[in-house]
Design brief:
Length: 85
């Protein structure tokens, strides 16, 4: 369960970063602080040392083991379900 309310775009972007569908550096700059906070609160590390949204050059996320990623995605899905209640 999340300890903070996040907007739907932040939750969706975090989910994409966690499952590898999007690099952190490709997340909209104004969403990056909250996305990073959410992703890291789920135990997934984010490498934001290179923040160049216009010219991404390397993956920004250290991908966790498959089980950890599945747990993180499940937590985000649960948060979305709770928000839609």
């Amino acid at each position: 369960m999340l300890k903070k309310d996040y907007s739907t775009p932040v939750i969706l972007e975090a989910s994409n970063v966690i499952d590898g569908g999007k690099k952190f550096e490709d997340v909209a700059v104004f969403l990056q602080p909250q996305v990073k906070e959410l992703v890291e609160s789920l135990g997934v590390s984010v490498d934001d040392s290179v923040q160049a949204p216009s010219a991404p050059t390397k993956p920004a996320v250290t991908k966790p083991a498959a089980d950890d990623a599945a747990k993180a995605v499940e937590a985000v899905d649960s948060a979305v379900a709770d928000a839609n209640k």
